[in-house]
């Protein structure tokens, strides 16, 4: 896919996220929307995988640590061919494979269960250790984390571990959207100086615009060239990205949609923010 | 039919070995037999008896530092990659401190991780209550998919370690620090999901786990002189629990005493009570920690003070037979 196609893919994924959450009547909004570009870049421009053979040994591993943003994971996986997009409407419903927080045993392609924050990086680090040191294989491990979950101590235990063992095949991507449930991260529990913290823990740190797909892909490629340490990419994002009335507002972390709000959001996404005419006009 | 134990069961000079030693021995056997077995430890390599494994198999030993949450998460990640990780610390720290990681990253995710908690029980002694794991059985057996093993001596701990590696799924193995009598033999059976009758008797059943199995045998020896015949069952496999063996025994004896070095709440006694109340309710007395925290002291002093020795089991038997 070229850059324009990737951007359109991210837009389609955002629309699916809105539709899924309307259908589910609960779930998280802001994070999934703001990570659509990162997920699009990873699944359509960075990672090696086979949706028809999700357990392929040579695949890159993808670990989602902040399970609550999984609508973006499900939507991206459906677009990547892991399962039909029609199944997205089953999110959070009885009998679904798309649980409210991801479950590895429910859906092929999901590597880890998550939800309780801070648990992903440890698992990703073990996978990276296994690949680099025990199996000596070239596949890589990508771990997406939220910024709020950096308040969990386990994240830093895992950061020390990955640094000690020089897990260069491990790339962390953090959704730096500055919000969490109760408010802005810097009010709830300040993370800054955030990049310095990761540097102090022995990681190579990149800071990028989390909505610039070219930058996301470039950063992931740059991480492959870093030989002596793991890399973390701090993806600066706008919470609720793509839907004007949600952007920047922490209230939309996990707010339930009203029907008209969903319609407004979809209209905005379909028209690419008013750049093209909506089919419903 | 009872099992084969050592010949001179009550010899004053019976060999005393810490239960944790059996884990170290088992791990060495696994190191040789199974290249998928790896060991992880949180800065307690010698005292959890992983030191030899770490020396003989340095490529498969991973020092995690004092970070038990990470320990559990790493275990999950290695299991995901097809390894059989033995994650090791003291019971108070793992599964004590990392229960959520064990719940989600290991059990819910179906990861084949072996969790080894050493220094369980009040017999940890002088280190005091903070280091005396008295709740670990309760918090592990409540987790779906978890197997919980409480070996009675070092030989059984070795067998439990080997059995855990063969079992596909999360296993918790509970170990103790202090030397206790080594009274089982190579021929004594051990199996996940099975309880074994160590002594037959008609008047009362004693179901015990850990070092308390030996104390139960001591109690039974004393009580037979007073005309009470005890049936002693080792329930090393606390989960899954061998309900059939327990039910068969209480059909005959009509009452039961449970004995463990753990909080009475949620432990072996609770597991037995749940099983019997479903099948054949009988009077039960519980030997264990009475909802209190421990304290510093010598192991034998603490076991006696808090009532988890042979004397306490004798008293519990006398209480329960009166309730029949």
From TrEMBL, chain A:
InterPro entries for the chain: THDP-binding, Transketolase_N
Recorded family membership: Belongs to the transketolase family.
PANTHER family, alphabetized: TRANSKETOLASE N-TERMINAL SECTION-RELATED
Record-linked SUPFAM superfamilies: Thiamin diphosphate-binding fold (THDP-binding) (SSF52518)
Signal peptide: none
Entry keyword set: Thiamine pyrophosphate
Domain of life: Bacteria
Entry cofactors: thiamine diphosphate
Organism: Candidatus Doudnabacteria bacterium RIFCSPHIGHO2_01_FULL_41_86
Keyword Translocase: no
Record protein name field: Transketolase
Start and end residues of each Transketolase N-terminal domain: 10-265
UniProtKB/TrEMBL annotation, chain B:
Keyword Transferase (UniProt): yes
Keyword presence, Transferase: yes
Domain of life of the native organism: Bacteria
GO molecular function: transferase activity
CC cofactor: thiamine diphosphate
Domain Transketolase-like pyrimidine-binding: 17-182
Pfam families: Transket_pyr, Transketolase_C
Family classification: Belongs to the transketolase family.
Origin species: Candidatus Doudnabacteria bacterium RIFCSPHIGHO2_01_FULL_41_86
Protein name (Swiss-Prot/TrEMBL): Transketolase
Range of residues in the leader sequence: none
Keywords on record: Thiamine pyrophosphate, Transferase
